[in-house]
Specification:
The chain has 423 residues and is an alpha+beta fold. The protein has two domains: 203 residues, Cytochrome Bc1 Complex, Chain A, domain 1; 194 residues, Metalloenzyme, LuxS/M16 peptidase-like (Cytochrome Bc1 Complex, Chain A, domain 1). It contains 16 helices and 13 strands. The strands form three sheets. Strands 1-2-8-3-7-6 form a six-stranded mixed sheet, sandwiched between helices. A five-stranded mixed sheet has the order 9-13-10-12-11, sandwiched between helices. A hairpin with a 5-residue loop joins strand 1 and strand 2. Helix 12 runs antiparallel to helix 14. The chain is globular.
């Protein structure tokens, strides 16, 4: 398998990915800043997300309405997302829409209006978003487990921030934060679909080539997995459980072993958790496992929703299956997990926007692009010994994080998980 994508670097450090997909009649463009909420201090918690909102209120010569209408008038769509380690601005368009898409996204990133009245209104909008997240138990429980896992590091804080920290933002402060967050040294322009290399490079130079080359905000200290329990009593029909254990980062050798471990543990209907907790015992309708990885840290997570009376037993099963998988995996189970992981990766590559984001992530993390063949080979190279070695990392620290949200009767499920896992 080959890779049509190429990676280029402009004189100011902005990197450009061009990935033509023959036969497509559409374009996907992502402008990705390799910084996000993990770079915020407590006083600016939520500012990266607030800034993502604010740039859409007006940028360059366009009003908020103009930004959307000019893209949609050509059959396109525009969106954005803020994470812990990246902020993405995205356009999907018909063939020939790259020029306009590049110009609009450049305005958002480089020339937002940042008006005082807009900021006051958007603070109210974000406050409602924070309230909405708190009212969604299956979202809020993940904020709780992040807080339990990562101690004082910014990863422990919600991406949305708090009402107080968001309300503290000023136009001047956001303007300064924008310059640091979207600096050239961590900016990726990634285009896929009906695109050509020369056009992508010419447009990227036109829109981003004059950015100053000064570096942005520095990295925080490497995250340290602290562990602990966070629980909150609520009158809910279903208890929300999340358990998290320390693992490896995206840059470490056992990254693909972690992805396979998560697949085998709870990645599909044939996984250990699904079969044991749902099919055999009927304890949970939703139960799965996931790999949560960053540049310098990572974790294995498990999510389940169950009845309050079943929470401790569900927690015990989760711990038992993690311990069991850390000790041994059958050949057929390993082969199945590898096939599932490759399917997830390659199906995402068939979607232009996912492909653009995937390439941007590789450029940010490794300053290179990986071919599908390289990715497949890395997955296939994982052996049972690799998984046992990873299992020692997962279990060896003696640390675990848990978040329980629901009836009081279920709040000791975290203790049951740790007791079964660690003793």
């Amino acid at each position: 398998m080959t890779n049509s994508a190429t990676l280029h670097t402009l004189e100011n450090g902005v990197r450009v990915v061009c990935d033509p997909m023959p036969g497509l009649e559409t374009v996907a463009l992502s402008v990705v800043a390799g910084r996000g909420a993990a770079y915020e201090d407590p006083a600016r918690s939520g500012w990266s997300h607030l800034l993502e909102h604010m740039v859409f209120k007006g940028a360059g010569p366009r009003s908020s309405r103009d930004i959307v209408e000019v893209i949609e008038a050509q059959g396109g769509s525009i969106n954005a997302a803020t994470g812990y380690e990246r902020t993405s601005f995205q356009v999907r368009a018909l063939k020939g829409g790259l020029d306009l898409g590049m110009a609009v996204l450049a305005d958002l990133v480089l020339r937002p209006t940042l008006d005082e009245a807009d900021l006051a209104r958007e603070k109210q909008v974000v406050a409602q978003e924070i309230a909405e997240a708190a009212d969604a138990p299956d979202d809020y429980v993940f904020d709780l487990v992040q807080a339990a896992a990562w101690g004082e590091h910014p990863l422990a804080r919600p991406i949305l921030g708090t009402v107080d920290s968001v309300n503290a933002a000023t136009v001047e402060g956001l303007s300064h934060w924008r310059g640091a967050l979207y600096a050239a040294d961590r900016l990726i322009v990634s285009a896929t679909g009906a695109v050509e290399v020369d056009e992508v490079l010419d447009l990227a130079r036109r829109e981003f080539g004059s950015m100053p080359a000064a570096p942005g905000v520095p990295n925080f200290a490497v995250p340290a997995f602290v562990g602990g329990r966070k629980s909150q009593a609520r009158k809910l029909e279903q208890v929300q459980l999340v358990f998290m254990l320390p693992a490896v980062s995206a840059r470490q050798d056992d990254y693909f072993a972690l992805r396979i471990f998560a697949e085998a543990l709870g990645g599909g209907m044939s996984s250990r958790l699904f079969q044991e907790a749902r099919e055999k015992r009927g304890l949970a309708y939703n139960i799965d496992a996931y790999a949560d990885t960053y540049a310098d840290a990572g974790a294995l997570g498990v999510y389940a929703g169950c009845a309050a009376g079943d929470a401790a037993e569900t927690a015990k099963i989760c711990a038992e299956q993690i311990v069991g998988l850390a000790g041994k995996i059958e050949d057929a189970e390993l082969a199945r997990a590898k096939a599932q992981l490759k399917a997830h990766m390659f199906m995402a590559r068939e979607q232009p926007l996912s492909r653009a984001e995937q390439a941007a992530g590789q450029a940010l993390m490794f300053d290179r692009l990986y071919t599908p063949g390289e990715l497949a080979a890395a997955v296939d190279a994982v052996t049972p010994d690799h998984l046992r070695r990873l299992g020692q990392v997962i279990l060896g620290s003696g640390k675990a994080a848990s978040a329980i949200l629901g009836a009081k009767a279920a709040l000791k499920a975290g203790e049951a998980f740790e007791r079964t896992l660690i003793g």
